[in-house]
Structures are given as structure tokens and as C-alpha cells.
Amino acid sequence: MITLLAFLVTIGVLVFIHELGHFLAAKWAGIHVHRFSLGLGSPVPWLTTRRGETEYCVSWIPLGGYVKMATREEGADPGALEGATPETPVAPDAYYEAKPVWKRMVVILAGVTMNALFAWLAFSGLAWRNGITINPETRLGVIAGDSLPEPARAILDIPPGTRITAVNGVPVDSWNGVQDLTQSAPGDSLVYQLEGLPALALPVHHDDLDTRLRLSMMLQPWLAPVVGGVADGYPGAAAGLQAGDTIVAVDGQPVVQWYDMADRIEAAADRPLTFLVGRPGGRVELTVTPRAEIVTVGRERRTIGRVGVEAGFPLLNEPLDLGGALRHGLALTGAASTQIVRTVRGMVTGRVSTREVGGPILIGQLAGQAARGGWEPFLAFMALISVNLAILNLLPIPVLDGGQFLFLVAEGLRRQPLSLGLRLQLTRVGVALLLMLMVLVFWNDISRLVAGGLGG
Fold it and tell me: Per residue in 25-60, pLDDT tens?
């Protein structure tokens, strides 16, 4: 139920914002608007009202929405996804075609502009409220996992504890910077400048999003073996471990960083371990028996040991004033936009598999996950989807805003519109492309469900 509700809120709000952009711009341009609809198809009679010249409604097909503007070509365009035109008088100068090309361009681009504006304000508001959380560490801790793609496997040659000073020539002073540049640094390779060692170049192209993302997630920063918190009811609390303790050794083996200790604990379910712990008053020995717990990793279930302690991450929170928050929000919006452009470009070049593309089912699953995390993760998720909606609507496909904008560009250059017949033919091609895309994304979504992908 949470997943379904989160999906409906996400799609409903973002579609409303998009169509509101078209609506407000059309009103500003003096274009007669017959109908403002959430949903496609004919209006639901009991969810329809009229104010002035415009009918406001919810329509039967709960996908998308539309703003039906007065046009002299009424009935010539493929209007199957829109209801019949209300019979209201239209002044000669209030038709869409009666307005200058530049005004019609504003109307066409207003929807994606509103989506981008929503994302910017949402990201900025969250940054203003929470600031930025920064991990100032730039030393490599571990490579978490063994599924690195072949082009990135040379990263395993970097010794733990090595400081990363720059990525693709851009200096880094936090792990945030390492991760961001690993994902987004331009070029056909990733070059890590290392303190005291030669630079390491990985042949991972900017558009190889899957490898870039997996690499950034698998690279983990150096983490001192300091206890940040102890959970009640677990063996660690019962044995006397405390927040602030430094784990010096486990069963006589020195602990260099947190991951060393974690690995030994997981491998010792129901087996006593001797912890040498450093405290302000000196060192003490504690005996801790990790509790056996069954966990699922991918599709595999296995038993590991747990003592109920968490690491003390050296995180810093940097508050932002309004100006800083707006700049940060703009940067996040730009980064999200670039990511989508790279995805589309990568699909064209073959660097991104079409299997990675998701549709409404995946969006619903992710919306449910975000909503369960609270309103802030959910708002950030909506902002990200809003950017997706904006960029995808700019694709040069005739039934989308980008295609309609190209029609207007051609009209401006030729000083007359393209012939109606040509526009209809191109539009039919656009509809076919969109249908193929919908089949692809639904196939991918269903395949993920069958294969045990993201749960609802």
C-alpha cells in the first residue's frame, strides 16, 4: 500500500507540475485553453469542473496528463489520448497557431522548466535544512566486494591506507569528492592521483555508468577502529564495549581499521573472541561472543556473527545559508540532468545496456523505499524523478516536448510551418518509438520482479 501510494503521489505531483507549466505559459501567451487534465483520455464526469473558458478534470487513464489548447488543426493531430474538445467559442487571435513562434516555444518548454524548477527548489530546501554531510577522509580503506568489471580491476592494486589526492586532475579533500568524481569525471578513463605512488588510470568511459557507479560504491574510505555506538541487547553491550572504544586487537591479531574487525566478527558466529580495547584510562581485555544471525546477500542466505556495535564515522556537517543551499541545489539538479543525458547517450553507443532502463514498476518500488525512509528521502527522490521527466521530455521525439520544439524551430527557419502531412507522419513515428520504449521498460521491470529484484 505504501508503494502504491508513494507512486501515485510521485507521478501525480510531477505530472501536475509539468502540465501547470504549460497551462500558465499558455494563459500568459493568450492562448485559449479548453482543458487542464490529470490523466489521459476523456474526463471523469464527477471529477470535472469549469472556471471561465477552461475545464479542469481528472481523466480516465491514470498516466500523464495534458493541457488541451485551442488549435485550428483540431481533429487532425492524434488526439486519442485526449478527450473531445469542449464546444466553447475561441477568438481568432487565441488559437495556438496565431501566436508568434517564440511564444509557442515558451509554452512548449514551460513544462520541463517547471519540473527542473521543482527539483532545484526541493534539493535546495533539503540542503538549507540539513546542510551537507562530509567525510573528510581521502585514504582508501577497502574495496567492498569482488564483482569489479574487468576495466576497473586494477583499482585492487592500490594498497589500503593510500591517500587519493585527485581524480582526473581535480583535487579532492573529502570522500564525497572521490565518489562524485568517480561517477562523473569526464573523459574515456578514470585517473587517480595517489600520494607517494604513481597515478592509476582505469579505462572506464564517462558513459559507462554501471561501472562508474559500482566502482564508486565499492570504494570505501579508511575507517579507524573506533566504536561509535553500542546496541542494547547485543553481545557487545553485555561484554562492556562502549562508544569511543578503540579496538586494538581481536584474538591477538592487530586491528588496523574497522573493516579488519568486522570481518573477524562475521566469521566467528557463536565463538568467543578476545578484544583488546583502548580507553582513556588504559587498555582492557573483553571477551565477546558474536551472536549468529542469518542474512541474505543477493540471493544467498548465510550465517554471520554480530556483536551490535557501529563504527564512529568522522563525518562533518557543513550548514549552508540560503545562497549556498541554492547553489548546491542547482549543482545537484545539473548533476542529475547530466546523468540522464549520459544514460541516453550510453544506450545509443552501447555502453549502457537497455536492461538497465526502468519504468513505472521500478519507479513505484523506489518511491516506496524512499517513502519508508521519511519525507526527506521521498522529496529528494521526487526531485530526481522530476529531473528525469524534464530531460526525457526534451528528447527529439515528435509527441514529446522536444519534438514539438523542433517543429517550431523548423517553422521559424522556414518562416512557415511544416506541412500537416509531414508532421502527422513524424508524430506516428514518435508514437511508435514511445510504444517500443514502453514495451522495453515494462519488460525490464517484470524481468527484475521475476528474477527477485527490488522488492515493494
Answer: 999 999 999 999 988 888 888 999 999 889 999 988
**pLDDT tens digit string along 133-190?**
999 999 999 887 667 777 788 888 889 999 999 999 999 999 999 999 999 898 889 9
User: What is the topology classification, in CATH, of domain 227-312?
Assistant: Pdz3 Domain (2.30.42)
CA distance 372 to 365: 11
Q: Which residues share a beta bridge with 134?
A: 316
CA separation for the pair 211, 445 (Å, rounded): 21
Task: At 375, list the grid cell.
Answer: 519525507
CATH 2.30.42.10 segments of the chain: 227-312
Please state which CATH class domain 140-221 belongs to: alpha beta
